[in-house]
TrEMBL record:
SUPFAM superfamilies for this protein: MFS general substrate transporter (SSF103473)
Major facilitator superfamily (MFS) profile domain residues: 245-431
Name the record gives this protein: MFS transporter
PANTHER family, per database record: INTEGRAL MEMBRANE TRANSPORT PROTEIN (PTHR23517:SF3), RESISTANCE PROTEIN MDTM, PUTATIVE-RELATED-RELATED (PTHR23517)
Length: 431
């Protein structure tokens, strides 16, 4: 009796590497650009909406939407990491996009500020589930050799889209009003991303399993105790405070997003207080994630060549200097320099920290480690919003920027003292 033809998908070997998985990698880059665009649709507009349409006063109250976003995104990151290890990456990605559907509608129809906060809770869940999953899936696909490049491409797409959409939303708001035009972008992004994630994206968990089989320990034995099966509690401890590189990455990530969260709620108000137009504010806010996004195309790959630690340290120092420029500035030109420098410093840090986590975490618990790192990193949104609001209410908007500059300096010193170099090119044999 003739035997049925084998299913090519069942016998096709799993291959690691950017070239071997170019089509799926490119698709995930496009999906992550749409993830970033969901944030960009509102960044320029919401602080102005709070004052002009809802009559809110007090910076701490206005920043509640950033706090809601940061806390829920942090929680969703943990869920994304845990579920992606347990159930697979793709179901988590699709679930994240389903949660995005009501977000632009709530922002368009909001009769009160509570609706805006509810929209940002859903947006935080969407961002945590989708962005974490695209990060994990790209790390799965490329293997250890090109981790920095993969993270640079991923984060460049996401934050480049934040910049482009922030700029587009600012111009739409200037031409057509604060609502509904800027948020129609979010409706289009959600529909496209949900279709791509459901119909075209493929599961990548088998790639992680293949890497685990061929995993090569470090010659110095530093990670030998991390190669076994770790419980979720053990992964949390290693990533949060016990393992020097992972915990250093977690604190630097938190401070990095503290700066982003503070700038999200504070910069538009600082710039508007100096008499800048809405379109100028949109351009300034686009420069920060724009340089951040494009810069990662260079810095991610650079970390594969020169290592991770010094790039992270230099990036945190650059962010501290950029915030000093913003705090001292009082014109469009000076603030443009500050936001460009802030974007450059963030570009040095953002993909490199994700590569650090990928270097240290074993493929068997990588999803959870990425999720926990992103919990700490994205709590920075909430910390930055609360800290910025309290300091601005007690003293001034500029004082809040000075505080963030000091915290960034302390973070850089912490990385320089505690983090070791995690990238060892000579150990990488999987392509």
């Amino acid at each position: 009796m003739p035997q049925p033809a084998p299913d090519d998908r069942a016998v096709r070997p799993v291959r690691l590497g950017l070239g071997a998985n170019a089509a799926q990698f490119a698709l995930l880059v496009a999906v992550n650009a749409l993830v970033g665009g969901m944030v960009g649709q509102q960044q320029t507009v919401l602080p102005l909406l709070a004052e002009e349409e809802f009559g809110l006063v007090g910076y701490t109250f206005i920043f509640t939407y950033v706090t809601a976003f940061g806390v829920t995104k942090a929680a969703a990151n943990y869920v994304a990491g845990t579920w992606s290890d347990r159930y697979g990456r793709k179901p988590v990605l699709v679930a994240g996009w389903l949660l995005a559907i009501p977000v632009p509608l709530l922002l368009i129809w909001a009769p009160s500020w509570g609706w805006v906060i509810a929209a940002n809770v859903l947006l935080g869940l969407n961002q945590g589930l989708t962005w974490s999953t695209t990060v994990i899936m790209k790390i799965d696909l490329v293997g250890p050799r090109q981790r920095g490049l993969a993270m640079g491409l991923n984060e460049a797409a996401g934050y480049g889209a934040v910049a482009v959409t922030s700029l587009a939303a600012g111009y739409l708001a200037a031409e057509h009003g604060l609502r509904p035009a800027p948020f129609l972008l979010g409706l289009a992004y959600t529909a496209l991303a949900l279709g791509l994630s459901t119909l075209a994206v493929r599961e990548t968990r088998e790639h992680a399993r293949a890497e685990a089989v061929e995993h090569t320990p470090r010659p110095d034995g530093r990670h030998d105790h991390l190669h076994g099966r770790l419980s979720s509690g053990e992964v949390f401890a290693q990533t949060s405070y016990r393992e020097p590189a992972l915990s250093s990455a977690s604190q630097a990530g938190l401070v990095n997003n503290l700066n982003f969260g503070l700038s999200w709620g504070l910069f538009p108000l600082l710039f508007a207080g100096a008499g800048l137009r809405v379109d100028q504010i949109g351009l300034l806010f686009a420069l920060y994630p724009g340089v951040w996004g494009v810069g990662q195309l260079v810095t991610g790959a650079l970390s594969d060549r020169v290592g991770r630690k010094h790039l992270v340290t230099a990036g945190m120092l650059t962010q501290a200097g950029a915030l000093v420029v913003v705090a001292l500035g009082d014109s469009f030109a000076v603030w443009a320099v500050g936001t460009v420098l802030l974007g450059a410093g963030t570009a040095m840090v953002y993909p490199t920290l994700l590569a650090v986590v990928g270097d240290v975490a074993h493929p068997g618990w990588r999803g959870r480690a990425v999720g926990i790192y992103r919990v700490w990193r994205d709590l920075g949104y909430a910390v930055g919003a609360v800290l910025g609001g309290v300091v601005a209410d007690l003293w001034s908007l500029r004082a809040a920027v000075w505080v963030a500059a000091a915290i960034s300096l302390v973070s850089a010193v912490g990385v320089a003292v505690r983090m070791y170099e995690t990238h060892h090119r000579q150990d990488l044999s999987v392509e």
